[in-house]
Every structure is written in C-alpha cells, then in structure tokens.
Design brief:
Elements: H1 4-12, H2 16-35, H3 41-57, H4 70-92, H5 116-130, H6 134-145, H7 150-157, H8 161-189
Helix pairs in contact: 1-2, 2-3, 3-4, 6-8, 7-8
C-alpha cells in the first residue's frame, strides 16, 4: 500500500487511481462518521459519496506542516468534511433523518485492534444516541464525539450557543435514562 502522503499527492494531480485508493482506504471510517447523523444506509452512502466529492474538490486546501502527523491531520480534515456534509443532509430533511437498517459489516471495530468488546460498545453507543431527539442527537454527536465547540455547533446548526449547551445537557440526561432502563432490564432478566 502506498503512503498516505503519496496518495494525497496523486489526488492533488487528479489521478483517479489515487482517488480510488483513498476512497477505498477511508470509506469505512467515513461511513461510521456519517452513521452517527444519518441512519438510513442508502442515504448515508450517498452522503459519504457527496463528502468525497468535497474532499477531492478541496484537496488544495488540505495543509499539514509536519509529515509525521499527516494521518492524524488528514483524518481530522476528512472527518470535518463528512460531519458537515451529514449536517447539510439533515438540514435538507429538517433535522429528521430517515431510519433504516444498518448492515452488520458496518460495525467492524473502529480501531481495527480486534477488540470485540469495543466493537460491541461502539454499536451500543450508536444505538443509544439514535434514540435521542434529532436536535439533541446532532449537538451530542458534534460536541462529544466530533469535538466541535458550542460556538461551531451554533454556527453550523443556526442556533444560539445557549441552545447548544442546553441541548447537550438534555441529551446527556436522556442517555443516562436510556442506560438506566437498559441496566434495569438486564438485571430483571437475570433475577
């Protein structure tokens, strides 16, 4: 496999071989990011593809000063593009994503370490976040998982900073409630 810096260089030259290599290498990563916002598989795939179009169009804007950090910086840059593309889709849907089945192969472990427990926890987290009302879910994903500031969330979603903070607080309360309910169900099943 070619190094990421070599692939990026090929993409900057609009070489389709390198674009395909990049697409294949990061497709699963991008799909997982988008699934935190868009729950219908077909729509999520479309959003990922739209995100890749933005990635390829904006390669000239990608900057990494330290070659040792290129993987980390590039993944952060792609993540931001995918999140923004997913949010654009949510806006088109008035913050109400379609919910559909998600194929099991999407739930491979996020870090490829082979830790099955982590893959199960990731799937469970996504299923709990999926239960949140759409506005709380978007703020939770953006703040907790994707690392946006409340100001960035407010700007992206067209809400106030106070509304962003309030939505995050309410999302946490809802998640705690869901977790407590699940724990009670599990405890009742083993009695």
């Amino acid at each position: 496999m070619k190094s990421l810096s070599h692939i990026i260089e090929g993409c900057l030259n609009n070489d389709q071989r390198f674009q395909k290599a990049l697409y294949e290498q990061f497709y699963g990563y991008c799909l997982k990011i988008v699934f935190r916002y868009i729950y219908k598989y077909e729509t999520a795939v479309d959003v990922v593809n739209d995100g890749y179009v933005k990635v390829f169009r904006n390669f000239k804007n990608f900057k990494c000063d330290n070659p040792d950090d290129i993987n980390k910086v590039f993944m952060g840059w792609v993540k931001r593009i995918m999140v923004n593309t997913a949010i654009d889709e949510l806006r088109r849907q008035n913050m109400m994503p379609d919910i559909g089945a998600i194929p099991d192969d999407v739930w491979e472990e996020p870090d490829k370490s082979g830790n099955a427990d982590q893959g199960i926890l990731y799937k469970e987290l996504v299923s709990q976040v999926k239960k949140l009302p759409p506005s709380y879910r978007a703020v939770f994903n953006m703040y907790v998982i994707d690392g946006f500031s409340h100001q960035e969330i407010a700007d992206q979603l067209g809400i106030s900073v106070g509304t962003s903070k309030s939505s995050l607080s309410k999302a946490r309360v809802h998640l705690q409630k869901y977790i407590n309910e699940d724990t009670q169900e599990i405890n009742a099943a083993y009695k």
